Amino acid sequence: MAVDEGKLMEFLGQFVGDLGATASAASVVLGDHLGLYRALAQSPATPAQLAERTGTNERYVTEWLRGQAAGGYVTYDAAAATYSLTEEQAFALTDPDGPVFLPGAFQLALGALKAQERIEESFRTGAGMGWHEHDSDVFIGCERFFRPGYLANLVPAWIPALEDVQAKLESGARVADVGCGYGASTILLAQAYPNSTFVGSDYHEGSIEAARKQAADAGVSHRVSFEVASAQSFSGTGYDLVATFDCLHDMGDPVGAARHVRESLAQDGTWLVVEPAAGDDVTDNLNPVGRMYYSFSTLLCVPNAMSQTGGQALGAQAGEAAIRKVTAEAGFTRFRRAAETPFNLVYEVRP
Predict the structure, then answer these.
(1) Backbone angles phi, psi at 55, to 5 degrees
(2) DSSP 3-state assignment of 349?
(3) Residue 2 above 90 pLDDT?
(4) What are 210-252's pLDDT values in tens digits?
C-alpha cells in the first residue's frame, strides 16, 4: 500500500479535531448544567473565582477552563491569567431562550450516543429502535436544540411566508401540531396567536406529559391540548393549519401520515412541513451540516422509522424531492418551498 505522508498527516489532523470535539461534548453540557458559562459571562475570572461563583471545585474548573479555551469556547488572557466569554460565545452558550443555544445540541448528541450498542446490533439485523427507547437526554436535548430555531424563525418568518395563514391565526384558527415532542412549537404559536386553539400530538407519552406541564407553566393550557397519538391517527378535522416540525422523515409510514393530514385539513387548510436542510443528491449534503444530520439520522431517525410499520426510512437528509413525492402520493396538489434557514427547509403544502 502506497501512503502519501502529507495526505495521511492531513487526515490525522482532522481526526485529532474530531476526537477533541467528541470528548469535549460532555464539557459543554457540564458548563451549562453547572452554570459555568453563565457565571463566566458576568466578568473575566480566574479558576478560583469561577469556582467560588458557582460553588464548584477549583481543580475541576481549572481543567474545564483550559479545555474550553483550547477548543475556542472560552477566551484566555495569558497576561492576566483569567478566562472570559466574548459577546458571541456568551450569546450562543448562556441563554436557553435565545435564538441560538449550543449546549442543547450537545445534550442531544450525548443522549443519542448511549444507544450505540443497540444501533450496532440494528446494523446486523435491520431492526429498529423507537424514539421512546432512547435515553431521556435525547428528548430534553432535542427540545433545547430545536426550540431556539423555532423561536427565531417560526412566528417572525415562517408563518408570514405562508399564504393567508397569518391572518387566519390572528383572527382565530384551529391548529394541529403533529409530532410535537415537548410542545415547544405548539406553545410558541399559542403565545403568538391568542385567538387560535392548538392540539399537539406525539406517540411518546413521556413527551406529551412534559408538553402539558410546559403549556401550563406558559399559561396557555386553556387554548392548548395534547394527546398521545401517532401521525396516522391524531384526532380532529377541519384544521386551518397542520404542522410537522422536523419529524416527517422519522416516520416509517410518511405517506400514511400525509394522507391523514390531508383528511384532517379544512378545504382551504395548509400543511406546514419543516424539515432539515438538505439537497436532493448525496453530494449536495457532503458538508458540515450534512455530516451532523447524517450522524444524528443514523442514531435516531432511521432506527425510529425502521421500528414502525410502513417500510420507509427517509432519513434526516431526505431532500426536497423526496418530501414532495410523499405529499403527491398522499393526494396533495400544491407544494412549494416557502422559506429556509441554514438548518431547515420550510414547505407549504395544500390539497
Answers:
(1) 65, 40
(2) strand
(3) no
(4) 999 999 999 999 999 999 999 999 999 999 999 999 999 999 9
Q: Could you tell me if 285 and 279 are in contact, meaning their C-beta atoms sit under 8 angstroms apart?
A: yes
* C-alpha 303 chain-centroid distance: 17
Per residue in 136-163, is it b (16+ CB within 10 Å) or e — as a string? ebbbbbbbbbbbbbbbebbbeebbebbe
Task: From 53, 132, 124, 86, select the one nearest 307 (Cα to Cα).
Answer: 132
Which residues are within 8 A (CB) of 296 and not within 5 positions of it... i.e. 6 or more apart? 108, 109, 112, 316
Tell me the whole-structure pTM to 2 decimals. Answer: 0.94
For 156, the grid coordinates are: 417572525
pLDDT tens, position by position, 94-132 = 999 888 999 999 999 999 999 999 999 999 999 999 999
Answer yes or no: are the C-beta atoms of 193 and 162 closer than 8 Å.
no
Q: Closest by alpha carbon to 241, among 298, 198, 292, 294?
A: 198
Q: Grid coordinates representing 342?
A: 441554514
